[in-house]
Design a protein that fits this description.
Elements: H1 2-17, E1 33-34, E2 40-47, E3 53-60, E4 63-64, E5 66-71, E6 77-83, E7 89-95, E8 101-108, E9 111-119, E10 125-132, E11 135-136, E12 138-143, E13 150-157, E14 160-161, E15 163-168, E16 174-181, E17 184-192, E18 198-205, E19 208-209, E20 211-216, E21 222-229, E22 232-233, H2 236-251
Antiparallel strand pairs: 1-2, 2-3, 3-4, 3-5, 5-6, 6-7, 7-8, 8-9, 9-10, 10-11, 10-12, 12-13, 13-14, 13-15, 15-16, 16-17, 17-18, 18-19, 18-20, 20-21, 21-22
Length: about 270
């Protein structure tokens, strides 16, 4: 999925950076015209070395105007962009090699803006994000495959997590609630059993555990209380037990794949065009 989405995103940049010919020729009927000031004017059509069309579009004073269509080297539809006249905004649709849409949204200059929606090859929506001039700002959502049920809701403010963050089980029931303040976890994080009952209550301050963590059985009985101060457990007996558990984990380290070696599958979607 990453390869199929990554390529079309940067296709819009390629649209703007391709070079043409016919310098000094005039008239809209002439393709790939560059005026004496070095500005692209009129209709442009650029081809790959194999003769397939790379993109078709129209320039006015070196700025793209109207619809630009880009193609894979195979000739399949790659992306469609519509540039508004006298505006810094454009709308974009991206396609995979089967010409199925895998992303759509708007740009402000070269930065993602407003709502962006991303799809799997089968057309199912997998993510939705809100941007303000290239910065995450608003609600981001991801969805389970293949049910399409909501997986998580992440609020952003000026590129940082800010507000109530929620994660759900695949059947739609709440799994976790936490609050972020300017990118740091604050207040009490709550974990839930599939039944909806509280599993754990963990107090946070400045992204560190602070206070008494309470864990519950599914019947609602408190099973443990763990004191924390600035992220450290202050109960020596509990700390010793946790240390032994960590030692056991270290013994089998490498037996299982490290999920941290894998790139966040949505991270590249948040990068500005270059």
């Amino acid at each position: 999925m990453i390869k199929k989405i990554l390529i079309p995103i940067f296709g819009v940049t390629l649209i703007l950076n391709s070079f043409g010919q016919n310098v000094g020729q005039k008239g809209d009927e002439i393709k790939n015209y560059t005026d004496i000031n070095g500005m692209k004017q009129g209709p442009w059509e650029v081809k790959y070395p194999n003769g397939q069309i790379a993109y078709v579009g129209y320039f006015k004073n070196n700025k793209p105007v109207g619809k630009f269509t880009r193609y894979y080297e195979s000739g399949k539809l790659f992306s469609e962009a519509y540039f508004y006249d006298n505006s810094k905004y454009s709308s974009v649709k991206m396609y995979n090699t089967a010409e199925r849409i895998i992303g759509r949204g708007r740009y402000c200059d070269q930065n993602k803006d407003s709502i962006w929606i991303f799809y799997l090859d089968n057309g199912m929506q997998i993510a939705q994000e809100e941007y303000n001039n290239g910065i995450l700002h608003g609600i981001s959502k991801t969805f389970y495959y293949p049910s399409g049920n909501l997986h998580e809701i992440i609020p952003y403010k000026d590129g940082k997590k800010h507000g109530l963050y929620e994660k759900y089980y695949s059947d739609g029931r709440i799994r976790m609630r936490a609050t972020y303040c300017d990118g740091l976890m604050c207040d009490t994080m709550k974990l839930y059993y599939p039944s909806g009952r509280i599993e754990s209550e963990i107090p946070y301050k400045n992204d560190l555990r602070n206070g008494i963590e309470k864990n519950y059985s599914e019947s609602g009985k408190v099973t443990s209380e763990i004191p924390y101060e600035n992220g450290r457990c202050t109960d020596p007996a509990i700390e010793l037990k946790k240390s032994k558990e960590l030692e056991e984990i270290e013994k089998v380290k490498g037996t299982f794949p490290d999920i941290n070696q894998f790139e966040d599958p949505l991270d590249f979607l948040r990068r500005p065009l270059r």
